[in-house]
Design goal:
The chain is an alpha/beta fold. The protein has 13 helices and ten strands.
Length: 279
C-alpha cells in the first residue's frame, strides 16, 4: 500500500459528505497520496473517496472501537478491498474517556477488538490496519498487531520517540494540524480554537506532559510554545518545514490538516502541495 510521504486529514463534518468526491479528486490531483477521513467513521464511509479516484489511498482516522463492532468493520474493509484493491487502510483507535462511558482498560479492549478482526469471516489483516497510538504500550501493540501507528496532536519529539519505540519496520504516520495564515494573531486564534477540545482530553494532555510541556503550557488555551509545536502556523513553506522535521524524526508519512477554515480548504491544500513539492 503506497501512502506516499504526504496525505490530507479532514472530516466529513468539515467538508460535507456531498463534497467527498470533489475533495478526494482534488487531493489526488494535487499529488497527495492518502486521504485520512477523521470523525470516527467506519470503513464503508471511505467508498465515495475511493470511487471518485483511481490511485488515492483512503484511511479511517480512526474507526472507534467503542462505537463499532469488529465483525462489521472487517466485512466493510473486505468489501472495499475487493472493489479497490490495496487502497483502503483502516485506522482503529480507542478514543477518549471523556467521550465514552464504556472507556475501561483501553489496551485490553483494543487487543480484544483486534482479536475480533482476526476472527472475522474475512479477516482484516494487520497489513491493512493501523492503530491510533500515543503511549508506549499502544505503540508496542501497533508494531506487533498492525502495520504501525497513527499518532494525533503531537509534537516532533513524539514522532522521534514513537520511531524509537516502533523500531525500523512499522509504519509511522502522524497527523499534523496547521494554520496556513501569515497574520500571527489570526493564526494563533485559529490554532487555539482548534486545540481547545484536545486540551480537555486526558490522553492528549498526559502525552504532552511527557514531552517537556507543563501544566502552565496547557492552561488558558495553550502557551504559544505548545501551540506552535502541535498546531504550527504561518506560510505554507513554514508548515512544510515542520512536516520535514517529522519526517527527519522518523515519520514515514505525514498527513496535514489545515484548520481555521470552513468547507473544503482548496487554497490551503494547494499551497501546501506547492510547498511540499507535489504535483
Amino acid at each position: 500500500m503506497n501512502l506516499t510521504r504526504y496525505g490530507i486529514w479532514i472530516t466529513y463534518r468539515r467538508i460535507g459528505r456531498a463534497n467527498a468526491a470533489e475533495a478526494a479528486r482534488l487531493v489526488q490531483n494535487l499529488g497527495f497520496g492518502t486521504f485520512w477521513l477523521g470523525g470516527s467513521e467506519e470503513p464503508a464511509q471511505l467508498h465515495p473517496l475511493l470511487e471518485a479516484t483511481d490511485t488515492l489511498v483512503a484511511a479511517t482516522g480512526i474507526t472507534n472501537i467503542w462505537a463499532s463492532e469488529p465483525g462489521p468493520v472487517a466485512d466493510q474493509a473486505a468489501a472495499l478491498e475487493q472493489e479497490f484493491p490495496g487502497r483502503a487502510l483502516i485506522g482503529v483507535g480507542a478514543g477518549h474517556r471523556e467521550h465514552t462511558s464504556e472507556y475501561v482498560r483501553p489496551l485490553t479492549a483494543m487487543r480484544e477488538f483486534l482479536d475480533g478482526l482476526d476472527a472475522a469471516s474475512v479477516p482484516l489483516v494487520p497489513g491493512r490496519r493501523v492503530l491510533a497510538a500515543l503511549g508506549p504500550k499502544m505503540l508496542d501493540l501497533s508494531a506487533g498487531r498492525a502495520s504501525g501507528a497513527h499518532p494525533y496532536f503531537i509534537p516532533v519529539e513524539h514522532t522521534r520517540f514513537a520511531r524509537d519505540r516502533l523500531g525500523d519496520g512499522p509504519l509511522l504516520a502522524p497527523e499534523l494540524a496547521c494554520v496556513v495564515e501569515n497574520d500571527r494573531e489570526r493564526a494563533l486564534t485559529a490554532a487555539r480554537e482548534y486545540a481547545a477540545s484536545y486540551l480537555g482530553l486526558k490522553n492528549y494532555t498526559s502525552n504532552l506532559l511527557r514531552f517537556g510541556f507543563t501544566e502552565a503550557d496547557l492552561a488558558d488555551g495553550g502557551s504559544e510554545r505548545l501551540i506552535d509545536a502541535v498546531v504550527p502556523s504561518g506560510s505554507a513553506e513554514r508548515i512544510a518545514e515542520v512536516v520535514q522535521a517529522h519526517l527527519e524524526a522518523g515519520a514515514d508519512h505525514v498527513c496535514v490538516q489545515p484548520v481555521g477554515v470552513d468547507g473544503v480548504p482548496r487554497s490551503e491544500w494547494s499551497a501546501l502541495a506547492g510547498a511540499l513539492g507535489l504535483g
